[in-house]
Amino acid sequence: MCLAVPAQIIALLPDNRAQIDRGGLVEEASLALVDDDVAVGDFVIVQVGVALAKLSPAEAEEALALLAAAG
């Protein structure tokens, strides 16, 4: 089973990609499926290296809290 998790964009890269921070783990993700404009500091929900949608800071905080509570 795969789980999509919130991540914060820390750099925009060429070819519609971004460097993201997932709780201290820095990696790259594709932004090809995100319809909204994104900027450094925005949150996105990421699954298997692909950002699926932009999240508000409140949505990201809530999702991260739920994941932390789940263990």
Automatic annotation (TrEMBL):
SUPFAM superfamilies recorded: HupF/HypC-like (SSF159127)
**GO terms of biological process kind:** protein maturation
The UniProt entry, under InterPro entries, shows: Hydgase_assmbl_chp_CS, Hydrogenase_HupF/HypC
Family designation: Belongs to the HupF/HypC family.
MF (Gene Ontology): carbon dioxide binding; iron ion binding
Give the range the annotation lists for the signal sequence: none
One Pfam entry name: HupF_HypC
- Check the record and name the NCBIfam families matching this protein: hypC_hupF
Q: What is the lineage of its organism?
A: Bacteria, Pseudomonadati, Pseudomonadota, Alphaproteobacteria, Rhodospirillales
**Record's protein name:** HypC/HybG/HupF family hydrogenase formation chaperone
